[in-house]
């Protein structure tokens, strides 16, 4: 029966079982009778309409404040699981009509208590308005969406609104909890992140820029002869340098920080414009969330091949550049080497390397080449200790890519400038393909030798770390490791005895 337009109140039976499950049967008259047959829909008729007496199961009468139900005796009736002959019904009561009849919920509506629309009905009404209204599309969309939101907030059932609020609260709680976890994690590794930020900032400042190539090209055009001073006084050492040249490698590496538990890499945080985000002091901002590129610090250094061994020797601070700033055992983050490769002079492609041993006493490390080149013979390690006053040769790649570009010539730099090529890995690749990777050599005198350290005055700078210090026979007497610019340009190396010891340990 259809619901009339003007009634004091009406009732609807919401069928939860039976052939009419999910449907409503309205009681809108002062009196009505209900009946059903096995397997047939539940029906409500007015008292004056014929109903098979054997199938009539209940009668409804409207009272002053609600409806009453009367069992006809043809089958039992339960209200809220209690058998009844007659009962006053309240909104939400559950009625079971006989053993085979439907289980229904009664809902009583009045001017103060109207049916709550479903979400699907609200969305359907909004869609109908948007499709039927003659107003402009933006107005239709705004009014349709606004009306739907208001109806969902104020016209749906209290239970539905509570569930939506609970879901929103749960989502907000999860997001807030994740934010707190991220903040706690970042705070707990503040020292490591700060160190990485410093290394990343150093990488950014040392990165080649187009204007650097322009300045270098202009400088080369009029001052190329100044490069010869880096190999001054090499007359007596020409053969030593030529023999060792192919065994001294240019090392490139980059590392980042990884969350131990989740395996997530620390990444650059992006701003709303899709650019890298920085703090007010210019420091890069990091996050564990995906999206931005992995934050990596880039390092260059020098290494050299050991004769008949297939391994490289370099400094520990080149193989593990994070050790001075990071303590993996006390943090939730661990440093991870992202890329590590060696360029041999005369080779157009790099060779990947891995660290196989580091010294815990001196600044030394041993690396393993993925595929050792056939052309490089390697260097011999001196067996006799050196003495003060002896001449030595230091070979390496001081200032990294900048020194290699300084040796490459004006035409090569001009082509890089034209191509806009300044990337850390791309520039090295171009240099390798052009056969322009070769170590610099400088001569000096040993000033002092002790068990842990050799001091000499051969010129070098950062990037030359890990290079060989050779005597006049071509044997390695030390590994270049540090500079002391405030002390007359003196530099430090690790004596050869420590190299032999670490190689023995790495072989065991």
Features:
single chain; 508 residues; alpha+beta; 6-stranded antiparallel beta sheet; 6-stranded antiparallel beta barrel; 28% strand; disordered N terminus
Structural overview:
With 508 residues, the chain is an alpha+beta fold. The protein has helices at 119-132, 137-154, 158-188, 190-206, 210-223, 238-244, 316-319, 401-408, 410-419, 424-433, 496-507; strands at residues 9-15, 24-27, 31-35, 43-45, 56-62, 67-71, 77-79, 82-84, 86-89, 94-97, 103-110, 248-259, 267-268, 286-287, 297-305, 311-314, 333-343, 351-358, 365-369, 391-396, 440-449, 454-456, 468-470, 476-484, 490-495. The strands form five sheets. A six-stranded antiparallel beta sheet has the order 2-1-11-10-7-8, with no helix packed on it. A six-stranded antiparallel barrel has the order 12-15-16-19-18-17. The relative contact order is 0.09.
Q: What's the structural blueprint in terms of helices and strands?
A:
Blueprint: E1 9-15, E2 24-27, E3 31-35, E4 43-45, E5 56-62, E6 67-71, E7 77-79, E8 82-84, E9 86-89, E10 94-97, E11 103-110, H1 119-132, H2 137-154, H3 158-188, H4 190-206, H5 210-223, H6 238-244, E12 248-259, E13 267-268, E14 286-287, E15 297-305, E16 311-314, H7 316-319, E17 333-343, E18 351-358, E19 365-369, E20 391-396, H8 401-408, H9 410-419, H10 424-433, E21 440-449, E22 454-456, E23 468-470, E24 476-484, E25 490-495, H11 496-507
Antiparallel strand pairs: 1-2, 1-11, 3-4, 3-5, 5-6, 6-9, 7-8, 7-10, 10-11, 12-15, 12-17, 13-14, 15-16, 16-19, 17-18, 18-19, 20-21, 20-23, 21-22, 22-25, 23-24, 24-25
């Amino acid at each position: 029966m259809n619901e009339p337009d003007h009634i004091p109140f009406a009732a609807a039976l919401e069928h939860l079982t039976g052939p009419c499950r999910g449907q409503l049967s309205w009681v809108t008259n002062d009196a009505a009778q209900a009946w059903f047959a096995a397997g047939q829909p539940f029906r409500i008729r007015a008292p004056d309409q014929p109903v098979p007496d054997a199938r009539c199961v209940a009668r409804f009468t409207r009272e002053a404040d609600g409806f009453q139900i009367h069992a006809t005796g043809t089958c039992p009736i339960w209200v809220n699981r209690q058998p009844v002959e007659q009962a006053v019904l309240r909104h939400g009561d559950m009625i079971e009509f006989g053993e085979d009849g439907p289980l229904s919920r009664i809902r009583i509506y009045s001017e103060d208590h109207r049916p709550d629309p479903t979400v699907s009905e609200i969305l359907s009404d909004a869609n109908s308005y948007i499709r039927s209204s003659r107003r402009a599309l933006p107005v239709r969309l705004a009014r349709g969406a606004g009306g739907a939101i208001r109806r969902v907030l104020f016209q749906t059932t209290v239970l539905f609104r509570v569930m939506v609020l609970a879901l929103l609260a749960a989502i907000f709680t999860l997001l807030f909890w994740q934010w707190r976890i991220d903040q706690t994690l970042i705070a707990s590794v503040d020292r490591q992140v700060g160190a990485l930020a410093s290394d990343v900032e150093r990488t950014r400042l040392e990165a080649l820029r187009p204007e650097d190539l322009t300045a270098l090209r202009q400088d080369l055009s009029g001052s190329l002869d100044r490069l010869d001073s880096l190999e001054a006084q090499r007359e007596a050492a020409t053969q030593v340098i030529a023999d060792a040249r192919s065994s001294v490698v240019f090392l490139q590496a980059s590392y980042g920080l990884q969350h131990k538990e989740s395996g997530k890499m620390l990444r650059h945080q992006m701003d709303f414009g899709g650019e890298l985000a920085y703090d007010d002091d210019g420091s890069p901002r990091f996050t564990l969330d995906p999206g931005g590129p992995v934050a990596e610090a880039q390092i260059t250094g020098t290494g050299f091949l050991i004769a008949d061994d297939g391994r490289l020797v370099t400094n520990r601070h080149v193989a593990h550049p994070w050790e001075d700033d990071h303590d993996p055992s006390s943090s939730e983050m661990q440093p991870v080497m992202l890329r590590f490769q060696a360029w041999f002079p005369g080779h157009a492609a790099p060779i990947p390397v891995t660290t196989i041993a580091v010294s815990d006493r001196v600044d030394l490390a041993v690396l393993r080449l993925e595929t050792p080149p056939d052309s490089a013979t390697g260097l011999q390690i001196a067996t006799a200790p050196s003495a003060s006053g002896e001449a030595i040769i230091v070979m390496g790649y001081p200032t990294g890519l900048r020194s290699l570009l300084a040796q490459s010539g004006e035409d090569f730099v001009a082509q890089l400038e034209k191509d806009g090529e300044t990337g850390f890995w791309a520039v090295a690749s171009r240099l390798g393909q052009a056969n322009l990777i070769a170590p610099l050599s400088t001569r000096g005198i040993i000033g002092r030798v002790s068990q842990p350290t050799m001091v000499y005055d051969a010129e070098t700078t950062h990037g030359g770390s890990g290079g060989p210090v050779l005597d006049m026979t071509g044997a390695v007497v030390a590994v270049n490791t540090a500079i002391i610019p405030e002390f007359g340009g003196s530099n430090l190396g690790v004596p050869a005895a420590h190299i032999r010891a670490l190689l023995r340990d790495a072989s065991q």
